[in-house]
């Protein structure tokens, strides 16, 4: 072999006397796609046949060591050589192999390192086995080699959490052998020399006997079943790790089968859709191009929402001027922000130093005029059009030219708000979700005249705030709340027609939602929906069956949910979390309303409930795509995953819709329409998809 050789497009080797270097260069993240696997296999075969080579050091070019298998290959026919085979070849290399980790060595990437004979990490790097987050398990030896190196407990923690482990911790646990500073190639050369000098020990992981404790495995399995009852892959992870007391060839067979079992599940497809969807929502022309600089943000309104938005900006290191009209409001806002930041510290999300730095960047003010120097204003006052218009009219006179004016409205017409200014191009909607410093969704609402750089700045801000920005067009409720309004009606009809609120909640929690809709209502405050129903009373569609009677009567009693101690459920003063007790008086209200309306209650199975609720959600989601409110189905899916607690393993409502199929959905809707032809109508887009056999995934591909 020549001193320097390009094995293929992504793998190169260098032979420098007794040292051979192998470099993986497959941007952006050096994923182990087919070319990497082929090239590595070839390189190891060639170097093992090169007489002078005494040690091989493997490193990666670019920003990171390999981030694992190429996820885009999943679901397609497998191509040889497989990663496990390549790693066995590396492990059995007669010449010692040392790997050099920089950036993030994840999944199959970390598994490559585990199969080498020594691991040197560059400070600041992280390692991890995040396969479980994709509905999988480490399928290239991670479940067998990590416990051999670190013991069971740490290996189970890493595999089940999918977390990225700082290399200092990995060193402490024995998963890496040395921490150094330097560039990957330099470190590779130095590490190889140390192997030759005998100052860096090498050993084969497969020859280490794993420490084994059945009680730890049993306790972990019980914990997994309780914590993630819907998920398949965590159980398979534990089963695979449990085989680490077998000879490695046998253990690897158990792991391989468990990996293939996971690969077949819809959960794997849903979670991988979520992985790519999170990235796809901002991979659009509207999110790219020039942006405006945002050095200081003004937030108008110190209520829960405004304070949450301010907290989010402060955590991201952006100074905030918080505006309220009266000093009590301002003090309340400051107190909420302080509480939010303290909460972030106690949850380990923020250091005390960063909390103090964030607080120092908060400038409270009672003067709207003080917004004259900010680059972006986010208005978060209550949802009343005339109030918003007045504020935006004032902002127009106060703010400097080029400042962006955003409304956090959750349903009002952004174009009408923009029209109250002389600069509608600078106006957009930035719809945060409560609690705004925690929830990752940001709907970026494009007005008719919103300038391209203003929209792109919205996406750039989402990234700085570590949020998932999704483009939405103007309509009542934008993407999420518009769909919610529709399926919320379905939940109300189910109760009106025979189900109990608890049955609806239980069925949907069994489906995977963290909380059923009645528990969510109690948490958010039932008065919010009540106010909306009263506000919309005059414009209500008379042909639409009214579904609010039960909730109205509950609210007339002053029962607004958790904050008043009762709603659909009872929350005694000691109530914190767990299973609340159903409110018996609500059952009486339900009976009375049904009697008043002459409704004979029907029996719904849990499956009926899920089918109707999910179909209602899909119907409105399809319309939102059809009329362009959302750019693509995947945008709707990400809104629901990041803003509405939709079970991530189901991928989102329209990914889930594809698992049912358009034809089956049309048949369902037509059957339900026999009961209520006004509510249950087939969207044209769904009918067309049923006719031509296409899917929402096809629409995503069309972009
Ligand atoms: C596995 O390894 C299975 C094995 O156990 C067994 C096999 C037999 N594949 O996130 P970013 C793309 S399962 C393909 O924006 P960052 C990503 O889509 C795998 N593509 O950057 C994006 O593309 P685009 C276990 C991938 O700096 C671009 O790279 N590994 C992969 O914020 C940049 O990504 C994981 O689960 C991939 N594996 O974060 C790791 N990874 O520009 C998954 C990324 O077109 N990856 N892309 O939108 C990550 O966690 C992050 O990407 C990482 C970088 C932390 C690496």
TrEMBL record:
Pfam families xref list: 3HCDH (PF00725), 3HCDH_N (PF02737), ECH_1 (PF00378)
Q: Which UniProt keywords apply?
A: Fatty acid metabolism, Isomerase, Lipid degradation, Lipid metabolism, Lyase, Multifunctional enzyme, NAD, Oxidoreductase, Peroxisome
Task: Tell me which domain of life the UniProt entry assigns to the organism this sequence originates from.
Answer: Bacteria
A GO biological-process term = fatty acid beta-oxidation
Pathway-wise, it operates in: Lipid metabolism; fatty acid beta-oxidation
Q: Which GO terms describe its molecular function?
A: (3S)-3-hydroxyacyl-CoA dehydrogenase (NAD+) activity; enoyl-CoA hydratase activity; isomerase activity; NAD+ binding
- Domain 3-hydroxyacyl-CoA dehydrogenase NAD binding, by residue range, is 296-472
- Which residue numbers delimit the 3-hydroxyacyl-CoA dehydrogenase C-terminal domain? 477-571, 609-693
- Positions the record marks as coiled coil are none
Its main subcellular localisation, reduced to a broad class, is other
Q: Which SUPFAM superfamilies match?
A: 6-phosphogluconate dehydrogenase C-terminal domain-like, ClpP/crotonase, NAD(P)-binding Rossmann-fold domains
Q: Which reaction(s) are listed as its catalytic activity?
A: a (3S)-3-hydroxyacyl-CoA + NAD(+) = a 3-oxoacyl-CoA + NADH + H(+)
Q: Which subcellular locations apply to this protein?
A: Peroxisome
Q: Which PANTHER family match?
A: 3-HYDROXYACYL-COA DEHYROGENASE
Please give the family membership noted in the entry.
Answer: Belongs to the enoyl-CoA hydratase/isomerase family. In the N-terminal section; belongs to the enoyl-CoA hydratase/isomerase family.
Protein name as catalogued = 3-hydroxyacyl-CoA dehydrogenase
- Which organism is this protein's natural source? Pseudooceanicola spongiae
